[in-house]
Design goal:
The protein is mostly beta strands. The protein is built from no helices and eleven strands. Strands 2, 4, 5, 6, 9, 10 and 11 form a seven-stranded mixed β-sheet that branches. The protein has a four-stranded antiparallel β-sheet with strand order 1-3-8-7, with no helix packed on it.
Length: about 120
């Protein structure tokens, strides 16, 4: 069973930065599409950013374009989300998710809390 483990969340002031990391317990992580989602209190989970590891193609939600950057390490065993110019509305639990095919994202981490104070 593939496990995803997020780290890097925390409390930061508005305008600050955080980098989230996602580690997978599988050697074939390079075959996966990996995405970050977030869920704020009393809101639905929403897509933040995704990367197709094989091609490097990246996508972003409009709300984070120009502020967040998704990346992977050379070995494609880790996926990162660099978050700059953070806003209070970025406050949420951030989840790393992955899928091997074109179906729904079916692998999820436990989430990491990001809190941005104003």
């Amino acid at each position: 069973q593939v496990q995803l483990v997020e780290s890097g969340g925390g409390l930061v002031q508005a305008g600050g930065s955080l980098r989230l990391s996602c580690a997978a317990s599988v050697r074939t992580f390079s075959r996966y599409q990996v995405a970050w989602f977030r869920q704020a209190p009393e809101k639905e989970r929403e897509f933040v950013s995704g990367i197709t590891q094989s091609s490097g193609a990246k996508t972003y939600a409009d709300s984070v374009k120009g502020r967040f950057t998704i990346s992977t390490d050379n070995a494609k065993t880790m996926v990162y989300l660099q978050m700059n110019s953070l806003k209070p509305e970025d406050t949420a639990v951030y989840y790393c998710s992955a899928r091997e095919g074109v179906g729904p994202y079916d692998l999820w981490g436990q989430g990491t809390q990001v809190t941005v104070s104003s």
